[in-house]
Design a protein that fits this description.
alpha+beta, Transferase(Phosphotransferase), domain 1, Phosphorylase Kinase, domain 1, six-stranded mixed beta sheet, 13 strands, 2 domains, EC 2.7.11.24
Length: 434
Protein backbone atom coordinates (compact mmCIF):
# COMPACT_ATOMS: atom_id res chain seq x y z
CA UNK A 1 0.00 0.00 0.00
CA UNK A 2 1.14 3.51 -0.61
CA UNK A 3 0.33 6.88 0.85
CA UNK A 4 -0.51 9.96 -1.13
CA UNK A 5 0.16 13.49 -0.10
CA UNK A 6 2.04 14.80 2.89
CA UNK A 7 1.35 17.38 5.50
CA UNK A 8 3.71 18.68 8.12
CA UNK A 9 2.16 17.99 11.50
CA UNK A 10 2.31 20.42 14.37
CA UNK A 11 5.65 20.16 16.15
CA UNK A 12 4.79 21.24 19.62
CA UNK A 13 5.31 20.25 23.22
CA UNK A 14 7.55 17.51 24.56
CA UNK A 15 7.21 15.09 21.64
CA UNK A 16 10.13 16.84 19.91
CA UNK A 17 12.20 18.65 22.59
CA UNK A 18 15.03 20.81 21.40
CA UNK A 19 13.50 21.71 18.05
CA UNK A 20 13.54 25.40 17.14
CA UNK A 21 9.77 25.33 16.77
CA UNK A 22 9.24 23.56 20.05
CA UNK A 23 8.33 25.29 23.30
CA UNK A 24 9.73 24.05 26.57
CA UNK A 25 8.63 20.52 27.43
CA UNK A 26 5.63 20.26 29.70
CA UNK A 27 4.60 17.49 32.03
CA UNK A 28 1.11 16.38 33.00
CA UNK A 29 -0.42 18.12 35.97
CA UNK A 30 -0.05 16.18 39.18
CA UNK A 31 -3.16 15.20 41.13
CA UNK A 32 -4.42 17.90 43.44
CA UNK A 33 -2.40 18.09 46.64
CA UNK A 34 0.60 16.25 45.24
CA UNK A 35 3.87 18.17 45.66
CA UNK A 36 5.87 18.49 42.46
CA UNK A 37 9.54 19.41 42.36
CA UNK A 38 11.67 19.88 39.25
CA UNK A 39 14.01 17.13 40.38
CA UNK A 40 11.14 14.64 40.35
CA UNK A 41 10.42 15.12 36.64
CA UNK A 42 12.69 12.90 34.52
CA UNK A 43 13.95 14.29 31.25
CA UNK A 44 12.49 12.50 28.22
CA UNK A 45 14.72 9.94 26.54
CA UNK A 46 15.20 10.65 22.83
CA UNK A 47 14.26 8.01 20.26
CA UNK A 48 15.90 7.74 16.85
CA UNK A 49 13.47 7.06 13.97
CA UNK A 50 14.96 4.40 11.73
CA UNK A 51 12.69 3.76 8.74
CA UNK A 52 9.01 3.41 7.86
CA UNK A 53 7.93 -0.22 7.93
CA UNK A 54 4.17 -0.14 7.51
CA UNK A 55 1.41 1.97 6.07
CA UNK A 56 -2.29 1.81 6.82
CA UNK A 57 -5.46 3.74 6.21
CA UNK A 58 -5.13 5.69 9.46
CA UNK A 59 -1.46 5.72 10.36
CA UNK A 60 2.15 4.98 9.55
CA UNK A 61 4.50 2.68 11.49
CA UNK A 62 8.22 3.31 11.93
CA UNK A 63 11.01 1.20 13.32
CA UNK A 64 12.69 3.06 16.20
CA UNK A 65 15.15 2.30 18.98
CA UNK A 66 13.99 2.65 22.57
CA UNK A 67 16.90 4.51 24.22
CA UNK A 68 15.93 3.20 27.65
CA UNK A 69 16.99 -0.37 26.85
CA UNK A 70 18.29 -0.30 23.26
CA UNK A 71 15.41 -2.46 22.08
CA UNK A 72 14.05 -2.10 18.55
CA UNK A 73 10.33 -1.32 18.72
CA UNK A 74 7.59 -0.12 16.39
CA UNK A 75 6.21 3.40 16.67
CA UNK A 76 2.75 3.94 15.22
CA UNK A 77 2.04 7.53 14.31
CA UNK A 78 -1.64 8.52 14.18
CA UNK A 79 -1.86 11.87 12.37
CA UNK A 80 -4.85 14.13 11.77
CA UNK A 81 -6.63 12.74 14.80
CA UNK A 82 -8.92 15.65 15.52
CA UNK A 83 -10.34 16.47 12.10
CA UNK A 84 -13.86 15.48 13.08
CA UNK A 85 -15.76 13.65 15.81
CA UNK A 86 -15.80 10.32 13.95
CA UNK A 87 -12.00 10.40 13.68
CA UNK A 88 -11.71 11.22 17.40
CA UNK A 89 -13.90 8.28 18.39
CA UNK A 90 -12.15 5.88 16.04
CA UNK A 91 -8.65 6.78 17.24
CA UNK A 92 -9.63 6.74 20.91
CA UNK A 93 -11.26 3.35 20.41
CA UNK A 94 -8.10 1.93 18.81
CA UNK A 95 -5.87 3.49 21.47
CA UNK A 96 -7.93 2.06 24.32
CA UNK A 97 -7.99 -1.35 22.65
CA UNK A 98 -4.20 -1.40 22.27
CA UNK A 99 -3.87 -0.62 25.98
CA UNK A 100 -6.56 -3.19 26.88
CA UNK A 101 -5.09 -6.18 25.04
CA UNK A 102 -3.12 -8.74 27.05
CA UNK A 103 -2.61 -11.67 24.70
CA UNK A 104 0.41 -13.19 22.97
CA UNK A 105 -1.31 -13.29 19.57
CA UNK A 106 -2.71 -9.75 19.64
CA UNK A 107 -0.50 -6.69 19.24
CA UNK A 108 -0.74 -4.33 22.22
CA UNK A 109 0.69 -0.99 23.33
CA UNK A 110 4.00 -1.06 25.18
CA UNK A 111 3.99 2.68 25.76
CA UNK A 112 2.52 5.96 24.52
CA UNK A 113 4.58 9.07 23.92
CA UNK A 114 3.77 11.95 26.24
CA UNK A 115 1.35 14.39 24.63
CA UNK A 116 2.23 18.07 24.34
CA UNK A 117 0.04 20.79 25.82
CA UNK A 118 -3.54 20.25 24.73
CA UNK A 119 -3.59 23.31 22.43
CA UNK A 120 -0.78 21.72 20.38
CA UNK A 121 -2.06 18.15 20.61
CA UNK A 122 -2.73 16.86 17.07
CA UNK A 123 -1.03 13.46 16.80
CA UNK A 124 -0.68 10.29 18.85
CA UNK A 125 2.38 8.04 18.99
CA UNK A 126 2.03 4.47 20.24
CA UNK A 127 4.91 2.04 20.81
CA UNK A 128 4.34 -1.65 20.13
CA UNK A 129 6.48 -4.71 19.72
CA UNK A 130 8.45 -4.76 16.46
CA UNK A 131 7.67 -7.79 14.30
CA UNK A 132 9.82 -8.87 11.37
CA UNK A 133 7.23 -9.38 8.64
CA UNK A 134 3.59 -10.11 7.91
CA UNK A 135 1.72 -13.06 6.49
CA UNK A 136 1.14 -11.40 3.11
CA UNK A 137 4.88 -11.09 2.53
CA UNK A 138 5.37 -14.70 3.59
CA UNK A 139 2.65 -15.97 1.24
CA UNK A 140 3.99 -14.16 -1.83
CA UNK A 141 7.62 -15.04 -1.08
CA UNK A 142 9.38 -18.08 -2.57
CA UNK A 143 9.86 -19.48 0.93
CA UNK A 144 8.30 -22.95 1.28
CA UNK A 145 5.20 -23.18 3.47
CA UNK A 146 4.83 -26.61 5.01
CA UNK A 147 1.70 -28.07 6.55
CA UNK A 148 3.31 -27.46 9.95
CA UNK A 149 3.71 -23.76 9.11
CA UNK A 150 0.07 -23.47 8.05
CA UNK A 151 -1.24 -25.25 11.13
CA UNK A 152 0.73 -23.16 13.60
CA UNK A 153 -0.17 -19.92 11.80
CA UNK A 154 -3.87 -20.78 11.64
CA UNK A 155 -3.89 -21.87 15.27
CA UNK A 156 -2.46 -18.54 16.40
CA UNK A 157 -4.88 -16.52 14.24
CA UNK A 158 -7.87 -18.31 15.74
CA UNK A 159 -6.39 -18.16 19.23
CA UNK A 160 -6.06 -14.38 18.98
CA UNK A 161 -9.48 -14.10 17.36
CA UNK A 162 -11.14 -16.04 20.18
CA UNK A 163 -9.63 -13.55 22.64
CA UNK A 164 -10.91 -10.56 20.66
CA UNK A 165 -14.40 -11.99 20.22
CA UNK A 166 -14.62 -12.95 23.90
CA UNK A 167 -13.96 -9.28 24.70
CA UNK A 168 -16.84 -8.34 22.39
CA UNK A 169 -14.54 -6.91 19.70
CA UNK A 170 -14.97 -7.33 15.95
CA UNK A 171 -11.70 -6.75 14.08
CA UNK A 172 -13.41 -6.10 10.72
CA UNK A 173 -10.19 -6.10 8.68
CA UNK A 174 -8.58 -9.52 9.07
CA UNK A 175 -6.20 -10.01 6.13
CA UNK A 176 -2.65 -11.38 5.69
CA UNK A 177 -1.11 -7.90 5.88
CA UNK A 178 -2.64 -7.41 9.34
CA UNK A 179 -1.11 -10.61 10.70
CA UNK A 180 2.43 -9.85 11.83
CA UNK A 181 4.96 -12.68 12.07
CA UNK A 182 8.50 -13.30 13.25
CA UNK A 183 11.05 -15.75 11.88
CA UNK A 184 10.14 -18.19 14.68
CA UNK A 185 6.54 -18.22 13.30
CA UNK A 186 5.10 -16.23 16.22
CA UNK A 187 2.02 -14.37 14.94
CA UNK A 188 0.14 -11.32 16.22
CA UNK A 189 -3.08 -9.74 14.95
CA UNK A 190 -2.64 -6.00 14.39
CA UNK A 191 -4.30 -2.86 12.98
CA UNK A 192 -7.47 -2.12 14.91
CA UNK A 193 -8.36 1.04 13.02
CA UNK A 194 -11.66 -0.50 11.85
CA UNK A 195 -12.34 -2.58 14.97
CA UNK A 196 -15.41 -1.93 17.08
CA UNK A 197 -17.47 -3.46 19.84
CA UNK A 198 -20.03 -6.00 18.65
CA UNK A 199 -23.51 -4.50 18.48
CA UNK A 200 -26.07 -6.78 20.20
CA UNK A 201 -29.06 -4.82 18.91
CA UNK A 202 -29.89 -6.08 15.38
CA UNK A 203 -31.81 -2.88 14.67
CA UNK A 204 -28.62 -0.82 14.92
CA UNK A 205 -27.07 -0.31 11.49
CA UNK A 206 -23.36 -0.97 10.94
CA UNK A 207 -21.15 0.26 8.11
CA UNK A 208 -20.41 -1.98 5.11
CA UNK A 209 -17.13 -0.12 4.48
CA UNK A 210 -15.13 -2.76 6.33
CA UNK A 211 -12.75 -5.58 5.45
CA UNK A 212 -10.51 -5.58 2.39
CA UNK A 213 -12.69 -6.83 -0.47
CA UNK A 214 -10.94 -10.18 -1.04
CA UNK A 215 -11.66 -11.19 2.57
CA UNK A 216 -15.14 -9.68 2.89
CA UNK A 217 -17.93 -11.99 4.05
CA UNK A 218 -20.95 -12.45 1.74
CA UNK A 219 -23.35 -10.81 4.22
CA UNK A 220 -21.25 -7.64 4.08
CA UNK A 221 -21.01 -7.80 0.28
CA UNK A 222 -24.81 -8.12 0.14
CA UNK A 223 -25.41 -5.00 2.21
CA UNK A 224 -26.42 -6.59 5.50
CA UNK A 225 -26.83 -3.71 7.95
CA UNK A 226 -26.05 -5.77 11.04
CA UNK A 227 -23.39 -8.44 11.27
CA UNK A 228 -21.52 -10.39 13.93
CA UNK A 229 -18.07 -11.77 14.71
CA UNK A 230 -18.67 -14.38 11.99
CA UNK A 231 -17.36 -11.86 9.43
CA UNK A 232 -13.90 -12.28 10.96
CA UNK A 233 -14.17 -16.08 10.73
CA UNK A 234 -14.96 -15.80 7.00
CA UNK A 235 -11.83 -13.68 6.55
CA UNK A 236 -9.74 -16.30 8.35
CA UNK A 237 -11.19 -18.97 6.06
CA UNK A 238 -10.07 -16.98 3.02
CA UNK A 239 -6.59 -16.66 4.55
CA UNK A 240 -6.49 -20.38 5.32
CA UNK A 241 -7.19 -21.14 1.65
CA UNK A 242 -4.54 -18.60 0.63
CA UNK A 243 -1.97 -20.30 2.86
CA UNK A 244 -2.78 -23.63 1.24
CA UNK A 245 -2.82 -22.42 -2.36
CA UNK A 246 -0.40 -19.44 -2.17
CA UNK A 247 -2.94 -17.32 -4.04
CA UNK A 248 -5.98 -15.23 -3.15
CA UNK A 249 -9.08 -17.42 -3.11
CA UNK A 250 -11.63 -14.83 -4.28
CA UNK A 251 -9.69 -12.27 -6.33
CA UNK A 252 -12.29 -10.05 -7.98
CA UNK A 253 -12.34 -6.56 -9.43
CA UNK A 254 -15.60 -5.45 -7.79
CA UNK A 255 -17.90 -6.44 -4.92
CA UNK A 256 -20.43 -7.91 -7.37
CA UNK A 257 -17.75 -10.03 -9.03
CA UNK A 258 -16.55 -11.01 -5.56
CA UNK A 259 -20.02 -12.28 -4.73
CA UNK A 260 -20.16 -14.19 -8.02
CA UNK A 261 -16.87 -15.95 -7.26
CA UNK A 262 -18.19 -16.94 -3.84
CA UNK A 263 -21.37 -18.45 -5.29
CA UNK A 264 -19.28 -20.23 -7.96
CA UNK A 265 -17.61 -22.11 -5.10
CA UNK A 266 -20.40 -22.43 -2.55
CA UNK A 267 -23.34 -22.63 -4.92
CA UNK A 268 -26.48 -20.49 -4.99
CA UNK A 269 -27.50 -19.84 -1.37
CA UNK A 270 -31.04 -20.55 -0.15
CA UNK A 271 -33.37 -17.62 0.49
CA UNK A 272 -33.00 -18.15 4.24
CA UNK A 273 -29.27 -17.36 3.97
CA UNK A 274 -30.06 -14.04 2.26
CA UNK A 275 -32.74 -12.85 4.68
CA UNK A 276 -30.69 -9.83 5.81
CA UNK A 277 -29.33 -8.95 2.34
CA UNK A 278 -30.37 -5.79 0.57
CA UNK A 279 -32.96 -6.17 -2.18
CA UNK A 280 -30.54 -5.43 -5.02
CA UNK A 281 -28.00 -8.05 -3.93
CA UNK A 282 -30.69 -10.67 -3.42
CA UNK A 283 -32.12 -9.92 -6.87
CA UNK A 284 -28.65 -10.26 -8.42
CA UNK A 285 -28.27 -13.76 -6.97
CA UNK A 286 -31.76 -14.87 -7.98
CA UNK A 287 -31.41 -13.54 -11.54
CA UNK A 288 -28.45 -15.77 -12.21
CA UNK A 289 -28.41 -19.41 -13.16
CA UNK A 290 -28.70 -21.75 -10.20
CA UNK A 291 -25.21 -22.93 -9.24
CA UNK A 292 -24.40 -26.20 -7.47
CA UNK A 293 -21.59 -26.22 -4.88
CA UNK A 294 -18.12 -27.02 -6.22
CA UNK A 295 -16.28 -27.38 -2.90
CA UNK A 296 -14.28 -30.33 -4.20
CA UNK A 297 -12.01 -27.88 -6.03
CA UNK A 298 -10.58 -26.93 -2.63
CA UNK A 299 -8.68 -30.22 -2.64
CA UNK A 300 -6.75 -28.86 -5.62
CA UNK A 301 -5.30 -25.92 -3.67
CA UNK A 302 -2.20 -27.93 -2.75
CA UNK A 303 -1.03 -31.24 -1.36
CA UNK A 304 -1.72 -29.75 2.07
CA UNK A 305 -5.44 -29.60 1.31
CA UNK A 306 -6.19 -32.84 3.14
CA UNK A 307 -9.64 -34.05 4.14
CA UNK A 308 -9.26 -32.47 7.60
CA UNK A 309 -8.05 -29.17 6.13
CA UNK A 310 -10.88 -28.94 3.60
CA UNK A 311 -13.45 -29.94 6.23
CA UNK A 312 -12.40 -27.06 8.50
CA UNK A 313 -12.20 -24.68 5.54
CA UNK A 314 -15.74 -25.59 4.47
CA UNK A 315 -16.97 -24.90 8.02
CA UNK A 316 -15.49 -21.40 7.82
CA UNK A 317 -16.64 -20.59 4.29
CA UNK A 318 -20.37 -20.95 4.92
CA UNK A 319 -22.63 -18.43 3.17
CA UNK A 320 -25.10 -18.20 6.04
CA UNK A 321 -23.31 -16.49 8.98
CA UNK A 322 -25.63 -18.20 11.46
CA UNK A 323 -24.31 -21.59 10.31
CA UNK A 324 -20.65 -20.57 10.03
CA UNK A 325 -18.34 -22.07 12.63
CA UNK A 326 -17.20 -19.72 15.42
CA UNK A 327 -13.57 -18.95 16.05
CA UNK A 328 -13.76 -20.73 19.40
CA UNK A 329 -15.29 -23.88 17.89
CA UNK A 330 -12.79 -23.85 15.03
CA UNK A 331 -9.99 -24.19 17.60
CA UNK A 332 -11.46 -27.55 18.62
CA UNK A 333 -11.15 -28.96 15.10
CA UNK A 334 -8.70 -31.90 14.90
CA UNK A 335 -6.80 -30.20 12.05
CA UNK A 336 -5.35 -27.79 14.62
CA UNK A 337 -4.21 -30.38 17.18
CA UNK A 338 -0.65 -30.44 15.83
CA UNK A 339 -0.50 -26.65 15.59
CA UNK A 340 -1.62 -26.35 19.21
CA UNK A 341 0.98 -28.88 20.36
CA UNK A 342 3.80 -27.20 18.45
CA UNK A 343 2.85 -23.72 19.67
CA UNK A 344 2.64 -24.70 23.33
CA UNK A 345 5.70 -26.94 23.19
CA UNK A 346 8.22 -24.37 22.02
CA UNK A 347 6.65 -20.97 21.19
CA UNK A 348 4.19 -19.74 23.82
CA UNK A 349 4.81 -17.76 27.00
CA UNK A 350 2.00 -19.42 28.97
CA UNK A 351 3.82 -22.76 29.30
CA UNK A 352 7.38 -23.35 30.51
CA UNK A 353 10.00 -26.05 30.74
CA UNK A 354 11.49 -27.56 33.89
CA UNK A 355 14.20 -30.23 34.20
CA UNK A 356 11.55 -32.93 34.45
CA UNK A 357 9.63 -31.81 31.35
CA UNK A 358 7.14 -29.23 30.13
CA UNK A 359 4.57 -27.54 32.38
CA UNK A 360 1.45 -26.68 30.39
CA UNK A 361 -1.09 -23.99 31.17
CA UNK A 362 -4.60 -25.03 32.19
CA UNK A 363 -6.23 -23.07 29.38
CA UNK A 364 -4.49 -23.15 26.00
CA UNK A 365 -6.86 -20.58 24.47
CA UNK A 366 -7.86 -18.17 27.25
CA UNK A 367 -10.66 -15.65 26.70
CA UNK A 368 -10.42 -12.02 27.74
CA UNK A 369 -10.85 -11.52 31.47
CA UNK A 370 -13.56 -8.92 30.86
CA UNK A 371 -15.47 -7.31 27.98
CA UNK A 372 -13.99 -4.24 26.35
CA UNK A 373 -16.07 -1.22 27.37
CA UNK A 374 -16.91 1.57 24.94
CA UNK A 375 -19.19 3.56 27.24
CA UNK A 376 -16.75 6.48 27.06
CA UNK A 377 -17.91 7.15 23.48
CA UNK A 378 -21.33 8.17 24.76
CA UNK A 379 -19.79 11.15 26.56
CA UNK A 380 -17.85 12.35 23.51
CA UNK A 381 -20.00 14.99 21.82
CA UNK A 382 -17.45 17.34 20.22
CA UNK A 383 -13.94 17.30 18.80
CA UNK A 384 -12.61 19.40 21.67
CA UNK A 385 -14.21 17.12 24.22
CA UNK A 386 -12.65 14.17 22.40
CA UNK A 387 -9.26 15.84 22.50
CA UNK A 388 -9.58 16.41 26.24
CA UNK A 389 -10.60 12.80 26.89
CA UNK A 390 -7.74 11.37 24.82
CA UNK A 391 -5.20 13.75 26.36
CA UNK A 392 -6.35 12.81 29.86
CA UNK A 393 -6.27 9.09 29.03
CA UNK A 394 -2.67 9.24 27.78
CA UNK A 395 -1.57 11.39 30.72
CA UNK A 396 -3.11 8.99 33.23
CA UNK A 397 -1.61 6.05 31.35
CA UNK A 398 1.84 7.62 31.80
CA UNK A 399 1.61 7.90 35.58
CA UNK A 400 4.01 5.54 37.29
CA UNK A 401 5.58 4.50 33.99
CA UNK A 402 9.25 4.49 33.03
CA UNK A 403 11.23 7.49 31.79
CA UNK A 404 9.10 9.28 29.16
CA UNK A 405 10.07 9.17 25.50
CA UNK A 406 10.35 11.76 22.76
CA UNK A 407 11.60 11.95 19.18
CA UNK A 408 15.11 13.30 18.61
CA UNK A 409 14.70 16.32 16.27
CA UNK A 410 18.38 16.09 15.29
CA UNK A 411 18.09 12.55 13.94
CA UNK A 412 18.76 11.98 10.25
CA UNK A 413 15.24 10.74 9.52
CA UNK A 414 13.41 13.38 11.57
CA UNK A 415 12.10 15.45 8.65
CA UNK A 416 10.87 12.37 6.80
CA UNK A 417 9.27 11.08 9.98
CA UNK A 418 7.24 14.18 10.78
CA UNK A 419 6.02 14.45 7.18
CA UNK A 420 4.88 10.83 7.01
CA UNK A 421 1.13 10.52 7.18
CA UNK A 422 -1.77 8.33 6.13
CA UNK A 423 -3.50 9.16 2.86
CA UNK A 424 -6.91 7.94 4.00
CA UNK A 425 -7.08 9.69 7.36
CA UNK A 426 -8.15 12.98 5.78
CA UNK A 427 -11.00 11.26 3.96
CA UNK A 428 -12.78 9.70 6.92
CA UNK A 429 -16.50 10.08 6.54
CA UNK A 430 -18.19 12.51 8.86
CA UNK A 431 -21.16 10.17 8.99
CA UNK A 432 -21.36 8.41 12.34
CA UNK A 433 -19.33 5.22 12.13
CA UNK A 434 -21.12 2.06 13.24
Amino acid sequence: MAFHGSSRPTVCGNIFPGSDATPNPTVPNAPAGTPRHPAEVPSPAEMEPDRPIGYGAFGVVWSVTDPRDGRKVALKKMPNVFQNLVSCKRVFRELRMLCFFKHDNVLSALDILQPPQIDCFEEIYVITELMQSDLHKVIVSPQPLTTDHIKVFLYQILRGLKYLHSAGILHRDIKPGNLLVNSNCLLKICDFGLARVEEPDPSRHMTQEVVTQYYRAPEVLMGCQHYTSSIDVWSVGCIFAELLGRRILFQAQSPIQQLDLITDLLGTPPLSAMASACEGARAHILRGTHKPPSLSVLYMLSDGATHEAVHLLCRMLVFDPAKRISGSDALSHPYLDEGRLRYHTCMCKCCYSVPSGRVYTRDFEPPADRPFSHNYEQSMHSVWQGKELIHRFITEHQQGKRVPLCINPQSAAFKTFIRSTAWHSSKVSRKEER
